[in-house]
Description:
Elements: H1 6-17, E1 22-26, E2 34-41, E3 45-49, E4 58-61, E5 65-69, H2 77-87, H3 91-102, H4 109-126, H5 129-142, H6 149-162, H7 166-182, H8 187-202, H9 206-216, H10 223-236, H11 240-254, H12 261-276, H13 281-298, H14 303-322, H15 326-346, H16 353-361
Antiparallel strand pairs: 1-2, 1-5, 2-3, 3-4
Helix pairs in contact: 2-3, 3-4, 4-5, 4-6, 5-6, 6-7, 7-8, 8-9, 8-10, 9-10, 10-11, 10-12, 11-12, 12-13, 12-14, 13-14, 14-15, 14-16, 15-16
Amino acid sequence: MRQLPAACAALLLAAATARAQDTIKFKEGQGSDLQGEVVGLTHKVVEYELTQAPGVKQPADAKKIAEIIPDGSRRTFDYATGETALASGDLDQAIERFDRVTRDARASELIKQLAYYLGIKCRWEKGDYAGAVAAAQRLRKERPDCFYLRDSFDYEVRAHLAKGDINAAAKTLADFEAKGKADGMTDWPKSAEVMRGRLLELQGKWREALAIHRKYARDRDAGEDASLGELRCLAALKDWPALTSRAEQVIIDAKGKRSAAKLLTGAYNAKGEANLNSGKPKEALLDFLQGVMVLNKGGETTMEHEASLGLGALACARVAAGHKVKADKDRYKERAQALVAELDKFYPGSSYRSDALKAIQEVK
């Protein structure tokens, strides 16, 4: 058997090691994270090639995947600039860059799909709900089988709800459910029903919504959103004992799970609301601060984190008002103001702001 010259062997080795090392992160309990080059991705399946087996495509069930992190070599200049802008809070610049990537013929399919998705996410975080809807619909038109298809429906529904357009949200939900049934995505109809529970919440139909959320609260696919909905409904119904009990159970079940940051934050908020409405502001403050800390670990802005900051500021102000020693009163008041400043930074125009400021102003 003839041997390759050393130089050729070195070149082949360099070519093999130069292959993209995208990281595929699986949902909790769905598989071990792996590295390889993603060569195909739809909302049904993600295909990848391992470094040690180039040319051999291996499939992964898309619904089991939590996140795909592209190799640095795949990032185009615009994509990398968009990521930097997003990290620094410059959403306008991020949107501009990500939109450029979607039109860049040189960008890989993975980077393009990520750019579509991040363009929607940035518009949502900016509060440009009409823009988020348009971007979500554009993704589905131009990439009808995109890996981020489900996310596009989710953000569009949330954007319609943020605008108070329940009819538009219901239509998007119907489209989402129909697509799931047509493509055999068994978890999508469950998620659609949980989102319908959210529509009922906005209409003040708390008990009807609660029944839906409880139906799916322990479902593997839709359980997180359903559990959060259950907590919201119990809070709205002012059933403080049931809210406390359910929140404590959620915390026990969710602790230690890497993907449960949003759920943990929601549960700590629920405990906090129960304590706040039971005349225990100091205990409530500790709960809300736990929620703030969970987000700091997860790194994701959510409406649950917004509530932690806003309600935490309110609870802190009430603790301040209850102190007789001026130094203690001032310390808690300053902490409440710091929480409002964080709220303004991450969630400008938050609905929690006015109540928090009113409570701070009442501290004498």
